[in-house]
Amino acid sequence: MQPTNPSSAMSNSLDVVNLPVNALAGVGTKVAEQLAQLEITRVFDLLMHLPRDYEDRSRLVPMYELQHGQSALVEGIIARVERKKTGMSVYLQEPQFGGGQVILRFFTVYRGLTEVMQVGTTLRVFGEVVVNKYGTQISHPEYEVIVGAKPLTNTGLLPIYPTVKGLHQNKLRSLVKLALQTVKNTVGQPQAFDSVFPEDWQAIQPVLTKQFPLLAGISNPFAEFGLLDAISFIHQPPIYTDLGKQLLLLDSLKNRTHPTCGRLILEEMIAHQLSLLYRKQQLHQHKAPRCDSTSPLAERLITSLPFTPTNAQTRVVSEIVNDLATSVPMLRLVQGDVGAGKTLVAALAACYALDSGWQVAVMAPTEILAEQHLINFKNWFEPLGIGVGWLAGKQKGKEREKALQAVQDNEVQIVVGTHALFQEQVSFAKLGLVIIDEQHRFGVEQRMALLNKGLAHTTPHQLIMTATPIPRTLAMSAFGDMDTSIIDELPPNRTPITTVTISRDRRDEVIERIAANCQTGKQAYWVCPLVEESSVLDAQAAEATYADLDDRLDLNIGLVHGRMKPAEKQAVMQDFKQANTALLVATTVIEVGVDVPNASLMVIENAERLGLSQLHQLRGRVGRGTEKSFCVLLYQTPLSETGIERLNVLRDSNDGFVIAQKDLELRGAGELLGKRQTGHMGYYISDLVRDENWLIIAQALAHYMIRDSHRQTQVLQLINRWTPEAIKYVNA
Q1: Which value, in Å, is the radius of gyration of the alpha carbons in the chain?
Q2: Hey, CA dihedral for 663, 665, 669, 670, is it positive or negative?
Q3: Which residue in 29, 40, 336, 580 has the fewest CB atoms around it within 10 Å?
Q4: Nearest to 298 by CA among 388, 428, 386, 417
């Protein structure tokens, strides 16, 4: 499929769903601002603002049929009223259907309420049912007094939407209904709204089910529902006379297991995959600098090392070299566990670009990590006659001018830095390879800006590294436009780390352990989540901990955090590396890139507040030497069941991929798929853990669609509809 300008294709498509939400009647400035808080800016966002629950007010439910957790409409006569200090209990008896009973609980009692709640009054109430040892209860229900055979009011299945303060459910319901009607009136036949068809599914199913036999039983979602029909169904589900059937329907809609939900999930995932594939396709239209497949510099670097690269490192370097040897821009993700040696792989890749006369840019998200890369690259390359430069945001005046000039004049062939590398005034002499560490912390726009630093009509190769092992589903979703290499082997000198979880109540014991450890000549880290004390979070701040430990221990103690000046941080880190400091108190700035082989003990305070992958990264700062290493996770009690489960995962496994998968299941995709990071909107309805099977199918369908040159308009429609933020990147 030959790409064209997406914007021109979009202009030919009058897609009503991309209209701003204030195009709808009843959406003024105030409502638009409230909707924006819910990330609703377009008509399509409103259509995809799906109910989190439903209120069934279509029928009176007999009291004996009530189930725990159900929201239900019931009617009865007040048989008894009890007043206590804790509030008021109203016993509602049902004369028909066998005489069931519901207790209405009111914790706030006021005069108007007591006047209504009188024995003998007939009430119709609606609320969430709780069944416990005290009976069947509804707390603070909606109620109305019934006189005679009063018909049901406010009936039907009412969707309950996520909302914000001031934006009432009825307003949201009316806006969603208006949006649906507007789209239906505009598109005419609902099928005209579709971009994916039953035949697409039929085309990929035989090959897919052969590869994944478990997918054979999944029915064709595109044959059952069109996109608009599926959206309408979820917002306005049918009413069944059979209560059991009704409850099953509502449960499947809430859990996103109903076929209509599957239809939306699959199309959404297809759109995300298409945006990635389209971006890769666009990149391949550009020319990249071709590099020699042999590198004397790489051989000299390997010879100078005090160790031999692992087989996994050698394999990944070979994959990179194959990419560099072509004129197609490389876009490769290198991932590996803590300590797998990604930095050396990046350095060896750089050798091939340098030997071919090209400059290399190395970009990291934080100054402390960039500084670590600078030290490594200087130690490796300057003895080999390669100049290594530095660019950071805090450089000012003549220092900055000198650094910029050195890059422009090719006096430095490797340039290490932070986001300062892609600022407008930075001009490279011959940029051929861009190495980006922890890419998910940079936005797509930032990455694209660095790509524009290449020579005219060329696009530099990109090597992306991440120290966070990424589960397969995340890799497919966030990095589907990249080729992936995994360093699945640790260097032989790495020692296993023993991890223990200890309550903060035993903090004094841990401090004694630190003292004993450091008195034998070993070093230790003490990590705190915050820099300063916070009135909001009950967490030990680094500065307070430093003061406390310095007072209690007869040790040289250092303090490092992100608010320190680079020179200060560097001095503290250097003291620790040279063993002048026994204990380093730090925030999570030491998460990546810090290598001190003599450090064998890591204490992480308030471990329950950090993500599993982050804890795994921090833990990886020890175990880099020959000494037995330990990681102590201090947690604040009481700890939730999920909190216990999370820390136990870390205690029981040293495998970053296992930990990352569990982190994904427990916490969600987080920043790897965040709007700020990837240029994606994030998912409306899809869930990477729950919907893994749909993701596999979506990837196959996206590949099938993008190969067909006749589907270009539909492909761009899908991208623009589901991932509007990505449209500006697909033609970058």
Answers
A1: 31
A2: negative
A3: 29
A4: 386
What is the C-alpha to C-alpha distance for residues 142 and 167, in angstroms, rounded to an integer? 19
3-state helix, strand, coil split of the chain in percent (to 5) is: 45, 20, 35
> For residue 144, what are its two tokens?
């109305």
Report the run of H or E that residue 308 belongs to, with start and end. Answer: none
**Helices and strands counted in the chain (H then E):** 26, 21
Q: Which two tokens stand for residue 2?
A: 């030959």
Q: What is the pTM of this model?
A: 0.70
pLDDT in tens, 648-700: 998 888 887 788 778 777 766 554 444 433 434 478 998 877 888 898 899 89
Which residues neighbour 331 within 8 Å (Cβ) at sequence distance 6 or greater? 280, 283, 462, 464, 481, 482, 483
Sheet holding 461-466, edge to edge: 388-391, 414-417, 359-363, 431-437, 461-466, 331-336, 483-487
The tens digit of pLDDT for each residue in 360-381 reads 999 988 777 888 899 899 999 9
pLDDT at 728: 61
Contacts of 600 (CB under 8 A, 6+ apart): 517, 522, 523, 524, 622, 623, 625, 627, 628, 629, 630
Nearest Cα to Cα of residue 107 among 139, 134, 82, 133: 139
Kind of pairing between the strands at 414-417 and 359-363: parallel
Residue with tokens 């870390």: 650
Q: Residue 457 above 80 pLDDT?
A: no
Helix axis angle for 367-381 and 342-355, nearest 10°, is: 60
- 588 and 513 in a common domain: yes
Q: Show the domain range for 604.
A: 497-653
Question: Which uninterrupted H or E stretch holds 426?
Answer: none
Structure-token pair, residue 543: 């500065």
Tell me the two tokens of residue 153.
């009011």
CATH number, domain containing residue 616: 3.40.50.300
Task: Report how far residue 579's alpha carbon sits from residue 627's, in angstroms, rounded to the nearest whole number.
Answer: 15
Mean pLDDT, the chain, integer: 85
Which residues make Cβ contacts (< 8 Å) with residue 43, sequence separation at least 6? 16, 17, 18, 19, 20, 21, 23, 24, 179, 182, 183
Considering the domain boundaries, does residue 508 fall inside one?
yes
Residues 582, 627: one domain? yes
